[in-house]
Structure formats: C-alpha cells, structure tokens
Amino acid sequence: MTPLRVLVLNDNKADLDLIDQQLTAAGMTVDKRPIPSGESFRAALDETQPDVVLSDYSTSSSFSACDAIDILRYHSPATPLIVVSESINGLSAGACLRNGAEDLVIKKNIHRLPNAITTAIERRHPLSKLTSRQVEVLRMVAEGHRTREIADKLSLSIKTVESHRGELMKRLGMHDVVSLVRYALRAGLVAISP
Q: Looking at domain 130-186, which CATH architecture does it have?
C-alpha cells in the first residue's frame, strides 16, 4: 500500500511534532511547511500532490483554513481539508464546515486523526472519477444554474451539458439532480451561505 501524502499547514512546532508522531505511526508521509499565502499553497499542492491537507483554523494572519478550502475547491477538489486545532468555537467550526472542511479534530482527541483522514479521503474519492469539466458542471448545477445557463457560461450545447450531467450521475452512482447537489455541497464544491 502506498503511504498517504499529508500536507500540514501549521506554524507551531509542537503541533507539527504531535501530528507527525500520530500520522507516521499510521504509515502516512507528512509534508510540513509554512504557507504564508495562496500562491505558496498552490505551489505546495502542485509539488506534493497531497491526499489530504491538515490546517490549523488560522495558520497565519494572512492565510487561514478557509482560504485553503477556497483554493482546494477549484485547484484540487478531490483533496479534503481537515482542521486540526487546540480549540475552536461553534461559529468558527460552522464556518469551516459550511465552507467545505471535511472534518474538525481537536488536539486533545488527536488519536482520531488517522481515522478522520481515511474517512475524508473515502468521501472525496468519487470526485477523482470526474473530469475537470464534469466537476465544473457539477459545481454549477449545485449553485442552482439551469442547463441553458451552464451551456452559455461554458460555451457548450445544451445536449452536451445534459450528457455531462448524465455521466456525473453514472460515475457518482446517483439517480437525480437533488443527490448531485447534496454531494456537491457535502464535498465542498460550493460554499454554503450562513
């Protein structure tokens, strides 16, 4: 079995050591690095091609977990993000989950992290079966766009959009548009407004 690649966005050495210890014991390869900006995060994604991203709620004053989720949504939608934090209030937790975080793990329950990672990867795996165009169509369907609007925005025929939607249902094992929308929302392809 190939070890899982985990990208950790955290500036705190003690946190990094704690995460590294838990994940190394579970057979996961950990890439720890400071990420000061969106550009450096995109570069890290391209370089490491992680299976999962772990982030403190606020990695620095200029780059947060929510910023990372926004980048993952378009740059690497099949890669889940899990927030690992000392503590997080209900409002922050809700904001992260609505924005597309796959899970939240509090440090006092760090033993949960390997299982949370495995579950998050399994939930996002169906997205890896889709082409980038299909992900784009799925995102637009979840945002509430009608077939004609999607066709116009993507410069496609209506028949092609319908074909993409049918293929999405087939590849994701779903039988209706409502299920597609639920999955897209759950996978964080679109942010849920508070």
A: Orthogonal Bundle (1.10)
